[in-house]
Amino acid sequence: MEITYYNWKKTFYTIWVGQAISQLTSSILQFAMIWYLTDITRSGIVLSLSVMMAFLPQGILGFFTGVYIDRFDRKKIMIFADLFIAAVSLLLVFVSVDGTIPPVIILLVLFCRAVGTAFHEPTLGAVTPQIVPESELTRCAGYTQSLESVSMIISPAVAAILYASWKMNYIVMLDVVGAVAAVIMVMIARIPKQRIQHDKDSKIHLIQESREGFQIIRQEKGVLGIVLITSLYSMAMMPISALFPLMSMEYFGGTSTYASIVETLFSVGYLVGALILAKWGGTKNRVYTIALSYFMMSIALIGTFLLPRTAFLVFVFFAWVMGVSGPFYWGTYTPLLQTHFREEYLGRVLSITNSIRFIIGPIALVLSGFVADTWGDEKWFLIGGITVFICGILLLANRRIREYDR
Question: DSSP labels for 201-221?
Answer without folding.
Answer: TSPP-HHHHHHHHHHHHHHST
